[in-house]
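Subject: Sanity check before I submit

Could someone independently write out the structure tokens for this chain? I want to compare against mine line by line before I put it in a report. The sequence has 548 residues.
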Amino acid sequence: MALRAPSRLLLLLLRGPGGPCRGLASEEPREPLPVIRVPQPLQLRRGAGARGGSAPRAAVLRPGPLLIAARRPEFSQPARLTLGSWERAPLASRGWKHRRSRGDYFSIERTHRGTPALPAGAEEGAAEQDAGAGFAALGLQPRVLEALKQAAPGVVRPTWVQLQAVPLLLRGRHLLCAAETGSGKTLSYVLPLLQRLLSRPRLATAHPAPRALVLVPSRELAEQVRAVAGPLGRALSLQVREIGGGRGMSSVRRQLSLDPPADVLVATPGALWKALKGRLLTLEQLCFVVLDEADTLLDESFLELVEYILGKSPVAEHKAELEDPFNPRAQLVLVGATFPEGVGELLSKVTDLGSLTTITSPRLHCVMPHVSQRFLRIKGSEKVTELIEILKHCGKDNPGSSGPVLVFCNSSSTVNWLGYILDDHKVPHLRLQGQMPATMRAGIFQSFQNGTRNILLCTDIASRGLDSTRVELVINYDFPPTLQDYIHRAGRVGRVGSEVPGSVLSFVTHRWDVELVQKIELAARRRRSLPGIKTSVKEPLPPVELTC
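---
Independent answer below. Compare away.
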């Protein structure tokens, strides 16, 4: 049998000094061949090129904190790394539309130790120096400062939003304040509002005529704004009243007929619309109009009512009308955490957009860097079991409790159905959804705030503007239908005044949920704002040039 001739590579390996075939070695000594190691990213790129595709970017993990922590380590991303807009992101959720991905998870880690009081990237020392002088440096009168000290002794320093908004409102500007949830927007308009009423005399009218109006989308938020403005108003001898829908016109008449009459009226659009139609009050004396949670008020469900109310309000159309000493018109303020694209079209009907000053937080529409957010790919039939296991460790008397929990559902029927299941498992909780009668709905959120129960099942009615500084965990039992809803739900934790930063857990079930999760993950990896959300009426120059 013929033997095959040795290959050239085999001969080279055998001819080394001390090799087994010394007789084949040449007389001249040869140096060993150098070893060439191909880097792993290049190997991946070459392999993908041979297959006709583009190679995924290889993640090189180094010791240190993570921005993205995935179950599969190759999809984790260090906190020091930021992906550029031209780089392909290795998303941990890329394959989540396949059923085999169930059980996978990743989390956006907490990388910022501050709160919404400070803009991301701002120097802590500079912010402390600006806030060190307190509210007195913003132009507030001593009477208002004393009222603030009596009503809210724990509030000693203004937040970033208050530092920007209060001086502009005291100068009589129309203002659109777009800032992240939990940044102190309510107090930023309540203090200038009350100070302006002190210098504005009340005129005698046949019908109740409030001098300031705060329009809010829900009864719960109306009660909360009244709870903030009421003690301040009493310290300044100003009356704050609140009307909401679902309680009948007799309740509205009773609130409006109380003596002394209301100086500040906090109302929902439906209740105020009925009061105006019934001629129970007039808005002719208004000098301050606030649309709180303006993104919700300018939605299709409220748009017609809000247009009617603004048409009855003497809102100044130009800057000159704001400064007219003989016939001053009302000052318009819009605040919110997100803004729809059609906000400018509506505002142009009641005021000149050129007179509208815009304040935009550098963190607006960004994934909150100070809150840990976890996403779990799970089957729909497993969500109840997973939720019960979590909630059983959140009981009021459990020493290992993670604190108060908000569980969000997309429909009122899901809230009721989950409530029955939790009752069967002896898990104490409260429920809050829009289809509940007003008599049942009244005071539920206050009971949750007071600590009567540590678990609240709710719809998105509890995601807009409500003060939830007690909340330590938000669970999206149903993933929110839009990115705006996700921002508001996640904003229930990590607020100004919260003792703990809190965290968010989202169950990801459907294919359309995965599409939103991928947008959130990509925005977090690139430290960009979430896509598809309009920032404001017009793009302003931010007070501080910062990134998310």
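---
OP: Matches mine. For the report I'm noting this point. The longest strand covers residues 331-336.
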